[in-house]
Amino acid sequence: MENKQVKFYIVWICGLLLYIYLVIFFWEFSKFLKYSNVVEPNKQQQLSEARFFNEADIPTLSIEEIKIRIISINKQQLVLNEEAYGPLANDSVIILIQVHKRVEYLKHLIYSLSLARNISQALVIFSHDYYDNAINDLVQSIKFCKVMQIFYPHTVQMHPNEFPGDDPNECSQQSSIEGNPLSKCNNVLHNVTQMKHHWWWKANMVFNGLEITKHHKGLVLFLEEDHYVAEDFLHVLLLMQESRGNLCPDCNVLALGNYLKSFQYFTYHKKVEAEPWYVGKHNMGFAINRTLWTNINRCAKSFCNYNDYNWDWSLQHVSSWCLKRQLLVMAIKGTRVFHIGNWQVAKLS
Ligand SMILES: *[C@@H]1O[C@H](CO)[C@@H](O)[C@H](O)[C@H]1NC(C)=O
Ligand SMILES: *[C@@H]1O[C@H](CO)[C@@H](O)[C@H](O)[C@H]1NC(C)=O
Ligand SMILES: *[C@@H]1O[C@H](CO)[C@@H](O)[C@H](O)[C@H]1NC(C)=O
Ligand SMILES: *[C@@H]1O[C@H](CO)[C@@H](O)[C@H](O)[C@H]1NC(C)=O
């Protein structure tokens, strides 16, 4: 009798332990699936075909070899997942992401994009200024929308001993930062100066340099690697685009992001406001179209000569001093884009 009871308990406890083990296993496994963007076996082939090169030897790649790859990629303009989601519509949203090398932040951004409604209709373009195996693998594993990569060619990585990298000749002259807007002599500024050049290059590339965007008439949304989007960000952007004519016909920029720390979400999440572009407020998650870019592009001189290592104060300068009509922003009060990066890292890495 007692023996039977003990056996019963042992069986019962073993069953319970097995059950707990299975629950934990499936929980972990589902998390793993969710984050790792696991590729189905029959798609694996497709993916490796879609890759440009065998990436195994990257650590030993010389600058020359990286240069060859970058030129080839920019020329090839491969769009991943086009078979799955069809060609780009003229009015689809293009999401343009500037990527340096903070892969941990980029993972979070991609994860947030994967959760967004109607993301399958968008084209996401990653514009890189650092060639890196891990980053390329991450981007090329995306399955939820059309994806493209472009590489800014004139980077510190590829020019370590000349501008924008360290140029010993330039630095012996000790030009002051004030006198020289894109000073080559301040070691801290090298890697950030390329942010401004990269920003200008990628916008021109997307509006004027890519085959796939030649007929595009819709919005291009500007994001950076350390942003995080809300699940409804595309939905809100399209609503703003639709209501622009009624609410603010003169607005030429649509902004999804702001830096408000405390905020009454239920009072404001659906409200928009209109005001002139201000860099401290509107430099995150804004969208423009080709019409406006054509006007900004005419101000290239004003943008480039402005003494600023990043792009945003330069754009502010263009808005105030060069454009016929300054940038007027229609901004959502409840932010749909969040800045998760550390400012200092963002500025200096
Ligand atoms: C986009 O617009 C161009 C020029 O107006 C047109 O030739 C092309 O067929 C359009 N493409 C689509 C998918 O609507
Ligand atoms: C700039 O970037 C390069 C390569 O990305 C790195 O080796 C170097 O330490 C960086 N310099 C500064 C001053 O951050
Ligand atoms: C998603 O796109 C479809 C087709 O364009 C549209 O009918 C639908 O309203 C969109 N959904 C959201 C939440 O924006
Ligand atoms: C682009 O946006 C402007 C507002 O800045 C608007 O007037 C124009 O019609 C838009 N262009 C296209 C092609 O939709």
Please explain how this structure is put together:
With 349 residues, the chain is an alpha/beta fold. The chain has two domains: 2-36; 72-348, Alpha-Beta Complex (Spore Coat Polysaccharide Biosynthesis Protein SpsA, Chain A). The protein is 46% helix and 13% strand. It contains 15 helices and eleven strands. The chain has helices at 2-36, 41-50, 63-76, 82-85, 103-114, 133-140, 168-172, 190-209, 233-247, 265-268, 279-282, 290-297, 300-305, 312-321, 343-348; strands at residues 79-80, 94-99, 123-128, 146-151, 220-224, 227-229, 253-255, 272-276, 286-288, 328-332, 337-339. A nine-stranded mixed sheet has the order 1-4-3-2-5-9-7-10-8, with helices on both faces. A two-stranded antiparallel ribbon has the order 6-11. Helix 6 (133-140) links the parallel strand 3 and strand 4 (146-151). Residues 35-57, 171-188 and 344-349 have low confidence and may be disordered. GO terms for molecular function: alpha-1,6-mannosylglycoprotein 2-beta-N-acetylglucosaminyltransferase activity; metal ion binding.
